[in-house]
Design goal:
The structure holds two protein chains of two kinds. Chain A has helices at 3-19, 25-31, 34-40, 43-56, 61-67, 70-76, 79-93. By secondary structure, chain A is an all-alpha fold. In chain A, helix 2 packs across helix 5 (61-67) and helix 2 (25-31) crosses helix 7. Chain B is elongated and about 85 Å long. The chains are: A mainly alpha, B mainly alpha.
């Protein structure tokens, strides 16, 4: 598989997880921590996040994900981080039997 | 915005069964569409026993109908017939998640430039035959290059047609009734070789061999009564095709000719006449 395909799949899964409330933006930022974001997001994207937060007066996980969309998450962040977020949601949902939940 | 407005009631449903199915459908369907997963991955988890237990009878009827009408039954047929939404609707979520988990973990461990997974498409049982090759008449070839042997294992019909278009070895050499000429006239696949000992006195000329050379459009062959240098001059001046073909002789063959006793003997006479 190419990296584009893998990236597109992770973007789609992240988008679907957010749309279907499998996990919340706060759950995403629990894995995509500020350190992770700062390490992997390009400067222009970090600037947009900060500018949007300044304009709104606050920086919330929802607002961060308004700028850093699932496509951008899958493009810039390590997929392992995204997978940890997805797998943790599956565990919470009780469908990840391999974890022993 | 990828999240609907916060609603306390929805917060209670986070991870609940209500929205789990669409998530599984999206994850599994996109994995199949993007080539992250193949139908075999699905069937490895959603086994026939799982389908027998959880798939409703109408879907089983559709599946059986499709299988009976298909030339080949494989995982792709099953997944396409049932459909990912129906699979996710009826198969337990933990089984589907096990499939998605395997696919996701595999995608993390697989390098990005790895070759595509095999088995994503069923291989047809019968390879379509190649288009029929019309047998071409053996036209006289004007090519002066060396003949390239046909690869082993080729189709017999193709070999036959190509063999007819190839330059007979006899046209690339002096067509005399010497030992080498006889080898060429007989279409002997062995390369002509110089004789280690001087040739025996020339036998009586074989008329069919000379006729065959005239039929092939070559220069008239010298008969045993003529001298060798007269024959060489006639061949060199008169036959343009033979002159071109002579240039195409491989070096190894030229060396063999130079090593022949008759060539060495007549070389002085040729040089004197020029």
């Amino acid at each position: 598989m190419s990296n584009d395909q893998r990236q597109a799949w992770f973007a789609r899964v992240m988008e679907s997880g957010l749309e279907n409330d499998i996990f919340a933006p706060s759950d995403v930022l629990a894995h995509a921590t500020p350190d992770v974001l700062a390490s992997h997001l390009p400067p222009e994207l970090l600037s947009k996040v900060l500018a949007a937060s300044l304009a709104a007066g606050s920086m919330t996980p929802e607002r961060v994900l308004e700028t850093v969309t699932p496509e951008l998450l899958a493009k810039h962040l390590p997929h392992e981080v995204l997978w940890q977020c997805i797998a943790a949601a599956a565990t919470r949902a009780g469908i990840n039997k391999s974890v022993g939940s | 915005m990828h999240r609907r407005g916060r609603d306390p009631r929805r917060d209670q449903q986070v991870g609940g069964i209500v929205n789990l199915k669409p998530f599984l459908v999206a994850a599994l369907q996109s994995a199949l569409e993007l080539g992250i997963a193949i139908p075999d991955d699905v069937i490895r988890h959603v086994t026939a026993d799982v389908l027998a237990t959880h798939l409703p009878r109408p879907l089983w009827a559709r599946l059986l109908t499709a299988c009976l009408g298909a030339a080949r039954v494989d995982a792709a047929l099953i997944v396409e017939t049932i459909g990912v939404p129906s699979l996710c609707e009826h198969v337990p979520a933990h089984i589907l998640w096990a499939c998605i988990e395997e696919v996701g973990l595999r995608s993390l461990s697989r390098p990005s430039n790895a070759p595509p997974m095999s088995g994503s498409r069923p291989i047809p049982l019968v390879t379509p035959p190649p288009p029929p090759i019309e047998p071409k008449p053996a036209a006289p070839s004007t090519s002066s290059g060396p003949s390239i042997p046909t690869p082993a294992g080729g189709e017999p019909e193709l070999d036959a047609s190509l063999r007819g278009a190839r330059i007979p070895p006899g046209q690339r050499f002096r067509t005399s009734t010497t030992g080498i000429g006889r080898l060429a006239a007989n279409n002997n696949p062995r390369r002509p070789q110089a004789q280690a000992t001087p040739p025996a006195p020339p036998p009586v000329t074989d008329p069919p061999t000379a006729d065959a050379s005239a039929d092939r459009g070559g220069a008239p062959r010298a008969k045993r009564g003529q001298t060798e240098h007269d024959f060489d001059l006639e061949t060199y001046v008169g036959g343009k095709d033979d002159w071109k073909n002579t240039l195409a002789v491989e070096d190894e063959q030229l060396v063999d000719w130079a090593a022949a006793d008759e060539t060495v003997t007549n070389g002085d006479e040729i040089g004197r006449k020029r």
